[in-house]
Write a structure and sequence with these properties.
Rhopdopsin 7-helix transmembrane proteins; two-stranded antiparallel sheet; single chain; 359 residues; 2 strands; 9 helices; 2 domains
Length: 359
Amino acid sequence: MRTVTNYFIVNLSVADVLVTVSCLPASLLVDITETWFFGLTLCKVIPYLQTVSVSVSVLTLSCIALDRWYAICHPLMFKSTAKRARNSIIIIWIVSCVIMIPQAIVMECSSIFPQLVNKTRLFTVCDEHWAAEIYPKVYHSCFFLVTYMAPLCLMVLAYVQIFRKLWCRQIPGTSSVVQKKWKPLYCSAHSRGSGPQIKSRPSAVAAEIKQIRARRKTARMLMVVLFVFALCYLPVSILNILKRVFGIFDNTEHRETVYAWFTFSHWLVYANSAANPIIYNFLSGKFREEFKAAFSSYCFGIHRRREHRLSRGRASTESRKSLTTQISNFDNVSRMSEHVVLTSITTLHTNASGSTQNW
């Protein structure tokens, strides 16, 4: 399981966990109460972590697409290794943390009704406050291009070429090539009676076919992950552009409808984090096998510890019983010994008395 693709998938899972742990509880409470209760510090931290996780997810998916594109379409140009994957992951986190710093700077707490600031926390919102109107338009336009549109176009182009390479072309290892290339050799070798060569050639072909099928399964799973990501992040990206760049919702009369759309878009983002493990489980047989093995070993470890405790309890009980039995046996032997001694003393005394009388 320690492949380059799986390193990136683990990093994607970490970003999903970051969204679920840090952003979901606060967003849930805000969506229900329409009030920010967490103060200024968390007002800066939580949106910052959310944007960092989005950037990490996008850049990780882009790295996965590029890695698969090089491995399948241009295998001789670039060789991916686990060390390069780890370095790429470190760079992804550094870049994401740096480019999202403005998001933490501009977030501030404010009240919808300023006259109630010192009386209640209700109607407090955590929102962006820029120095000029041009800044949010430039920032969010760049944010949309860098974290959604450009990576999505790059990934779509990469997977289109991967699809053409794996499914639409006759590459070495497919059934038709095998039939054209290996069947005459197999028949001629069989007629000459060269047994070892017959066994080695079909085994090599079977290995190539297995490799192609594994690549197809991995590419299919990654395509589904990309599709779900694009679908789940599309509404929030469009609504964010309409709000921050064009200001369409500033003076709207349908506030409840707009709020419902934003809430739905936020929940789609969280649904993407929840959907990825399900995709891995259904589309990756190796993931299922490794998960079952890890889960079974965990349960087996608990069962072994429980059996060990029970066996220790039984051993201690048996040792106590054995000790009790030994003590009782020792007591019986002691009593028997005392009885024999007393009997012997009595016999000797009787014999001595009899001999005295005779004398």
